TrEMBL record:
Transmembrane segments: 104-125, 137-155, 175-194, 226-244, 368-389, 409-428, 440-462
Organism this protein belongs to: Caldiarchaeum subterraneum
One cellular-component annotation, GO: plasma membrane
Superkingdom of source: Archaea
Record-given protein name: Type II secretion system protein GspF domain-containing protein
Length: 467
């Protein structure tokens, strides 16, 4: 292969690793302008890098080179240690996310239940010393509680390891379809919060459609705003969820196919065939979603296209960082190092280790997404049952409350919290907010089912005798 300094210089002109590219440009300036030797430039660059693992790798390389040690053996051993450490960190991240989800469930559920209980009592039994203004409830329920959920998403984002590049297509799909969702909200949701709009033309039609849907489900008045919100979140997140499922499956298949291809390439190279001939021969095999890219690469090699240009075309067609990194290193190994079997062996092991790390990360984090589901469903059911219980309790005391008013006040913020909890579940399980689009849709649908079930059964569960 080539020395790490030369590799850094090649990375300086690549967008694959933007942070390392910035550091590599500094090292290149120190050599070309400052007159430093490459080893000293690498040492100075490493001291300014925030990553401890990368700093230790480069400083150790410089030290080994100065002392006359086996640089190749050092780099291989250090890389193995980094991967072993990375796998250990996945378990630590899983434990950390578990604690975070427990905190999310406690804060979301307990704070919401305390707030709703206080508000029910203060409205049902108003007194001089126990009252919560509606404005204060709206501020807390519609802003502070969803804001806390958004805060947990941010904390999860900074606590999880990430790759430099991620697939932005699901987010672009969300942005493209967002105007339609907000148009639906303006026509079907807002009229139930600004009731004067229901008297206007066209708004009366849209609001009556939601009311008819409420009648069809057999629910009493007050559930209209919650039903409209559920439909809004489904329309908002469903296109992004479909896009994430499609593109996520594609990226996973490409990466898995690339891993299998690199192992086959290593074994084929050991027979003495040239790397280019091995790639052309292996293009006949099936490697999942990677096969179509491999066939294009094989044709470009047959046309005599430069390897650097082949990689650039591949990078434009793919969107995952792992497959871009794998092909980038493969091209470098052939273009500079001649594609030695030993180099391909290291590359194949590198790809297999990366795939194993991703598998362990998914297996560790996936069970944690059940916590937001349980939290949101329990919150919806408890709120509906609590309102029905208070209604029957006050009926026994010859008092009355407007059930529709309480349902209209309580359930919409709970639906909002449930949808955001879906984003939290996706962020925890897949390390990306786009992974939560699917869970937000499912959470909204389950919220609608929970509203129907709890609304239909609450009165029967807490029917109190009046005589």
């Amino acid at each position: 292969g080539i020395p790490p300094y030369k590799s850094l210089i090649r990375l300086a002109n690549s967008q694959l690793m933007p942070n390392i590219a910035k550091a590599a440009k500094v090292a290149e300036l120190n050599v070309t302008v400052g007159g430093l030797d490459p080893v000293t430039a690498v040492e100075r660059m490493a001291k300014g890098v925030p990553s401890k693992e990368y700093k230790d790798l480069m400083l150790g390389y410089a030290s080994t080179l100065r002392s006359g040690g086996d640089v190749v053996h050092y780099l291989i051993r250090k890389t193995e240690q980094i991967f072993t450490s990375r796998m250990g960190k996945m378990r630590i991240v899983g434990e950390r996310m578990g604690m975070m989800m427990e905190g999310f469930a406690a804060v979301t559920m307990m704070l919401s239940l305390v707030l709703f209980t206080i508000y029910i009592v203060s409205r049902a039994l108003p007194s001089e010393f126990l009252i919560m203004p509606s404005e204060q409830f709206v501020l807390i329920a519609y802003l502070i509680l969803p804001g806390l959920s958004a805060l947990f998403i941010y904390i999860a984002d900074i606590s999880q390891p990430k790759y430099p590049v991620s697939d932005s297509r699901p987010m672009k799909t969300l942005l493209l379809t967002m105007p339609f969702a907000f148009a639906f909200a303006a026509l079907f949701v807002i009229p139930f919060f600004i009731t004067e709009l229901q008297a206007l033309p066209f708004f009366d039609t849209t609001s009556n459609m939601i009311k008819q849907l409420r009648v069809m489900t057999g629910l009493e008045m007050g559930y209209e705003s919650s039903i409209a919100l559920v439909l809004f979140f489904i329309i908002l997140f469903l296109p992004g969820a479909i896009a994430y499922q499609k593109y996520g499956t594609e990226n996973f298949s490409v990466m898995h196919g690339l891993t299998l291809f690199l192992r086959d390439l290593t074994e084929a190279r050991k027979t003495g065939l040239s790397p280019e001939r091995c790639i052309v021969d292996l293009a006949r095999n099936s490697y999942g979603a990677f096969s179509k890219h491999l066939k294009i690469i094989a044709r470009q090699i047959g046309w005599g296209m430069p390897l650097r240009k082949i990689y650039e075309d591949f990078a434009k067609r793919t969107h995952g960082w792992l497959e871009k990194a794998g092909v980038f290193i493969l091209v470098d190994a052939i273009d500079v190092g001649g594609g030695a079997p030993e180099t391909f062996e290291v590359l194949a092991s590198f790809s297999e280790d990366l795939e194993e790390i991703e598998r362990q990360k998914r297996a560790t984090l996936k069970p944690l997404m059940l916590i937001p589901y349980i939290t949101a469903l329990m919150l919806i059911i408890v709120v509906v049952v609590l309102v029905a219980f208070m209604k029957n309790l006050l009926t026994l005391a010859r008092l009355s409350i407007s059930t529709a008013e309480f349902i209209h006040f309580f359930l919409p913020p709970v639906i909002i919290i449930a949808a955001i909890s879906g984003l939290v579940a996706g962020k925890i399980s897949s390390s990306t907010v786009a992974g939560g689009f699917k869970h937000a849709v499912i959470m909204s649908l389950l919220g609608l089912v929970a509203i129907y079930a709890s609304g239909a059964l609450a009165v029967q569960m807490f029917q109190l005798p009046t005589a």
